[in-house]
Amino acid sequence: MKFGKRYSNITVFMAMLHGVIIGIAAIAVVGIIFVGAEGKRTVDKIENEIPASGPAEDKENGTPADLKGESLSLYAKQHGAFTTSASAATFIAADTSLSTAAIIHSNGQYFVWSAVGLSEAEIEGILEADTYKKEFSVSPASCDLIHTTNLWEVLEADDIAKIKQLTSTNDDEKAKELAQHIDTITAFTNDLKVIRLHLLSKYANTSDCVKISF
């Protein structure tokens, strides 16, 4: 049996064109969905990388980024340098004039200091025979922000009243700890050079709060 021609060329062409249009539309829809998903992932990534508040923290040692690298230049009255803490302690015990001196450990040595000043003149004015000025700097090591900031303000203070005010106006636990150390030191001296010295001895030697560099 012989069948006649059912469809004209125009009908076939229109069917093919219709199929092409549907294919293009489907690809466009898939593309829009893909771009939308990528955009959402990008936004989520950016939001995760932006800190919610406050300075970024140095993950290596817990120091806030805005304090990392900040240093304070100071000057010490040095009496000697020793290879062991025992020999430094023996040196202090043998000299009654060193009753308020302290041992500072840095770079594998134990230094005997009796004063820490903010300027060269502050130390040069009290130098004696067999003593000399030692320039150094301190920088934050592993303290949290409020604690380190308070310690820096105390080290830079040029009046005993300022120190007591700084430690009495903050209820943070670390600030209270700092205030207790200051109370202990000021019980035997009001000399700012000695106060700075013993705070450095505490926070550099035992608490690893500050790093001393020469």
UniProtKB/TrEMBL annotation:
Transmembrane segments: 12-37
UniProtKB keywords: Membrane, Transmembrane, Transmembrane helix
Protein name (database record): Uncharacterized protein
Organism encoding this protein: Sporosarcina ureilytica
